[in-house]
Amino acid sequence: xxxxTWFLFLVMETALSLSPGPAVFYVxxxxxxxxxxxxxxxxxxxxxxxxxxxxxxxSLGALIAASARFFTVAKWLGAAYxxxxxxxxxxxxxxxxxxxxNPAAPAPADAGHAGKxxxxxxxxxxxxxxxxxxxxLFFLALLPQFIDTHHSIVPQMALLAxxxxxxxxxxxxxxGWLAQRAARASxxxxxxxxxxxxxGWIEGVGLLxxxxxxxxxxxxx
Length: 221
Known about the structure:
The chain has 221 residues and is mainly alpha-helical. The chain contains nine helices and no strands. Helix 2 crosses helix 8.
């Protein structure tokens, strides 16, 4: 792989990471509540991407891409879990506005509950990225164009994976940080209670919207 090829991939991946989409929205919705919530959200997205890179380096990825049944199952299972998370967020928003927006004075939380919450955020992000068949097609269709078949595939794929995930990690956390700053500014203006409730509604509606987009995707798109 030449330097020009690598640099072109870096520019393309950075631009795609900066573009708003379901992954960015998910991280923003978590970061607005508390910056630590953006970390497992980001790691969930990148874990799915790492799996895509692994599949792209094997013939298994091509077999999955050719399987209509796999796409159907992935869409419905992923969408179902996103609907579950969306409804849960909407119910929580309707029941209470108790989520703290000010990280300077966090509410005490049980360690077990915090760990469960982080796992749920991580699984939500992982499911969101894995349930979008278009992401798998993107990796399988795009990555081979940057691979030099005259050299070993695995080192090149590892380089592209690092080139993709390191900038995206920083970009997604940056979005989460900006969302948290906006939430803190709202708290200073004295609209914390209403903002908490709105954040819950936005997160729930956004997850339901992501589920709808996943279901609407077709192999011909």
